[in-house]
């Protein structure tokens, strides 16, 4: 299997730092939404094959198309100069990209200066035991770990290749390193729907928030989405039979809506892109590992920042490309999963755009 790893012992080599970006205006889209949150997919590769995310036999991008870590740093730095306050590193599985700690180390300078409020990561947890300490060192204070079940056999079925003990060890290592962990679970009809209450009790019992995500129609995965789709209204109704759920106005700058769970004292989030439209407060854009910027997770329109990045050593063209791209950010998406819609609403996989 061809995914990238880095030796645990090797200290990250310093990146050639991006030139100081010009002090330019904050990025605000035509609907008045300030763009303050960038999600960056640093690789489309992964060491797992979750059934809702990838097909078993994926064709990954040629390595030559992927931005170098220096280029990713330069792009992120340009966004930070334009008002990005929160940076989430994702993928594919971000922690399987070779040398990824070099990027975290380099980006942490924006935390040190206060330009960036939060540097964070979404991970499947498989490599976390190895990297938790370094992530904490780089100023990472909170992470999301994706885990859909506590049942080792089911975990293997969902991820096709995963080992739940590795993930649990990773979570424990992160917690020991002082990183707050939030668990993300995708609700899957007939797979984990009866287990979400137990997952909630486990996560909250261990001081972790839980967010349940509705499955989204992204990418051809070789299965019918209707077989997986479980509306979160049903999940919530079922959880309410066991737990007392109280609405809160807590927000993390993302699309999740949170409730407080009286029995555990913890927080439970719901991300329902299909049944609840959250576009009006969207402050985010997504960058792929090839330098393509998606202004909306649910639309095809994109901007090629790699060309602007590589055209000149200074960032003038890049900033012009950012202005042009944000000027095209659409008002909202139009996902749909129904019996007439056989194709995915958006052809690219979540692992390309970054979850
Ligand atoms: N590999 C990392 C992980 O699994 O956390 C980061 C990338 S993954 C694409 C980010 C998140 O997207 C995960 O929580 C995953 O469960 C979720 N995801 C992937 N495909 C999805 C889909 N079709 N619908 C909803 N969530 C999805
Ligand atoms: Fe990999 Fe994350 Fe997609 Fe699962 S959800 S296949 S761990 S990228």
TrEMBL record:
Q: Which residues are involved in binding [4Fe-4S] cluster 2?
A: 279, 282, 296
In terms of InterPro entries, this protein maps to: Aldolase_TIM, Elp3/MiaA/NifB-like_rSAM, MoaA, MoaA-like, MoaA_NifB_PqqE_Fe-S-bd_CS, MoaA_twitch, MoCo_biosynth_MoaA/MoaC, rSAM
Q: Which residues form the Radical SAM core domain?
A: 30-256
Q: Entry cofactor note text?
A: Binds 2 [4Fe-4S] clusters. Binds 1 [4Fe-4S] cluster coordinated with 3 cysteines and an exchangeable S-adenosyl-L-methionine and 1 [4Fe-4S] cluster coordinated with 3 cysteines and the GTP-derived substrate.
Q: Which cofactor does it need?
A: [4Fe-4S] cluster
The protein's enzyme class: lyase
The pathway that the record names for this protein is: Cofactor biosynthesis; molybdopterin biosynthesis
Q: Where on this chain does [4Fe-4S] cluster 1 bind?
A: 46, 50, 53
Q: Name one GO molecular function term.
A: GTP 3',8'-cyclase activity
Reactions catalysed, as given in the entry: GTP + AH2 + S-adenosyl-L-methionine = (8S)-3',8-cyclo-7,8-dihydroguanosine 5'-triphosphate + 5'-deoxyadenosine + L-methionine + A + H(+)
For the ligand (S-adenosyl-L-methionine), the binding residues are: 52, 92, 146, 216
* UniProt binding sites for GTP: 39, 88, 122, 182, 284-286
- Subunit structure, as described in the record: Monomer and homodimer.
Q: Which family does it belong to?
A: Belongs to the radical SAM superfamily. MoaA family.
The identity of this protein, by name, is: GTP 3',8-cyclase
Provide the organism lineage as a comma list: Bacteria, Pseudomonadati, Pseudomonadota, Alphaproteobacteria, Hyphomicrobiales
């Amino acid at each position: 299997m061809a995914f990238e790893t880095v030796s645990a012992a090797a200290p990250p080599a310093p990146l050639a730092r991006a030139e100081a970006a010009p002090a330019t205006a904050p990025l605000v889209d035509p609907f008045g939404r300030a763009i303050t949150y960038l999600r960056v997919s640093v690789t489309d590769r992964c060491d797992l094959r979750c059934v809702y995310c990838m097909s078993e036999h994926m064709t990954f991008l040629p390595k030559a198309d992927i931005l170098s870590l220096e280029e990713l740093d330069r792009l992120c730095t340009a966004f930070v100069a334009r008002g990005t306050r929160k940076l989430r590193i994702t993928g594919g599985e971000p922690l399987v990209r070779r040398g990824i700690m070099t990027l975290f180390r380099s980006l942490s300078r924006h935390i040190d200066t206060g330009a960036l409020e939060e540097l964070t990561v979404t991970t499947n947890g498989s490599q976390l035991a190895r990297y938790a300490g370094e992530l904490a060192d780089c100023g990472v204070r909170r992470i999301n770990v994706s885990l859909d079940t506590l049942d080792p056999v089911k975990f293997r079925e969902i991820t096709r290749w995963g080992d739940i003990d590795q993930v649990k060890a990773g979570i424990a290592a992160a917690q020991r390193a002082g990183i707050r962990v939030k668990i993300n679970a995708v609700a899957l009809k007939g797979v984990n729907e009866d287990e979400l209450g137990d997952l909630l009790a486990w996560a909250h019992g261990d001081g972790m928030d839980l967010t349940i995500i509705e499955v989204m129609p992204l990418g051809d995965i070789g299965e019918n989405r209707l077989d997986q789709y479980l509306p979160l209204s049903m999940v919530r109704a079922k959880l309410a039979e066991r737990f007392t759920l109280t609405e809160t106005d807590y927000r993390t700058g993302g699309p999740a809506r949170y409730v407080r769970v009286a029995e555990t004292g913890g927080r439970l989030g719901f991300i329902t892109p299909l049944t609840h439209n959250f576009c009006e407060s969207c402050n985010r854009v997504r960058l792929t590992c090839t330098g393509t910027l998606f202004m909306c997770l649910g639309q095809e329109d994109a901007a090629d920042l790699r060309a602007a990045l590589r055209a000149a050593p200074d960032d003038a063209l890049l900033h012009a490309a950012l202005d042009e791209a944000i000027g095209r950010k659409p008002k909202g998406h139009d996902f749909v999963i129904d019996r007439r819609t056989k194709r995915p609403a958006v052809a690219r996989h979540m692992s390309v755009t970054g979850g």
